[in-house]
Amino acid sequence: MPGFSGDVNVLAQLSAALVARAEEALASVVAIRDAHTSLSGILWANDVVVTSAQSLSRQDTYSLTDASGQGREAKFAGADTATNVAALKLSTPLQSRPLAGRIPVAGELALAFGAIDSGGLSTRLGIVNAVGDAWCSREGGQIDKRIGLDIRLDTSEEGGPVLDASGGFIGMSTFGPGRRVIAIPASTLERVVPVLLKDGHVARGWLGLALQPVAVPESFRGENSQCSALMAMSVDSDGPAAKAGVLAGDILLSVDGQSTRKFRNITAKLGSGSVGRQIELRLVRAGALQSLALTVEARPSQ
């Protein structure tokens, strides 16, 4: 058929380009074995591996296998479950490949790479099906972009790098809400990893409250028609809320001017830059409106 050979050439060129991308990615991927399972990681620097915090068992040392099949040992350096980023330190450095981060656009081809235990690479091809604004995880982690991937991923491949068609580094593959595959953006990794290497964790704000959604009494719904808020079910006796004077049964209407209609409105106020900052709480107690000043403290270590 006329033009058929040309079509075959285009497919062959695409195939060759994908192989070239895989060969480039090979030096950036390692297999990680912990006490319970295996997953993939990104060689972030010569002596640093980054992976998914939610799937990594907490232990002192891990067995790693590089692309050549050589075994390595790595020690736990830190983790931030709120952004789902963990960092490991290699006992024997490897030669890392610089990863130039970029934000993709919806519709782009994306390649997700993982590792196999014996050394070598697994490759998944799909598209970036959505790129949204920055978002806040349920634990208060700030993710710079919501990057959805139309890619199937095995558990052992989670934590590997995601590249675009030109080899640009989109981010780290992981399972997001509903087990949908997403990428933690490169810019988020660049912000979080240095903190983990320095401190082992990311300090985030804490109120010391157990909260539950409740209806706002009719007389306090006000001009913004706030129908729901959060009630303090319990107050940690050593927490910042107790020090500010919050009592169990108080109905919290707003935190620093932000309505408490949703839990995420509070977690967004308690990011890594909130510790030590004073915020205003507006609440209803015994039928009266009150305002309290609270100084945010770092969440205690688990």
Briefly say what this structure is.
The protein contains 4 helices and 22 strands.
Structure description:
There is one protein chain. With 302 residues, the protein is an alpha+beta fold. It folds into 2 domains: 4-199, Thrombin, subunit H (Beta Barrel), CATH 2.40.10.120; 205-298, Roll (Pdz3 Domain). Helix content is 15%, strand content 41%. The protein contains 4 helices and 22 strands. It has helices at 4-25, 186-199, 240-244, 263-267; strands at 29-33, 38-45, 48-52, 61-65, 71-80, 85-90, 109-115, 121-132, 135-136, 142-143, 146-150, 161-164, 169-175, 181-185, 205-206, 209-215, 228-235, 251-255, 258-259, 278-285, 288-295, 297-298. The strands form 5 sheets. A 6-stranded antiparallel beta barrel has the order 1-2-3-6-5-4. Strands 7-8-11-14-13-12 form a 6-stranded antiparallel beta barrel. Strands 16, 17, 18, 19, 20 and 21 form a 6-stranded antiparallel β-sheet that branches. Strand 20 and strand 21 form a beta hairpin. It is elongated, with a radius of gyration of 23 Å. The termini are far apart. The mean pLDDT is 90.
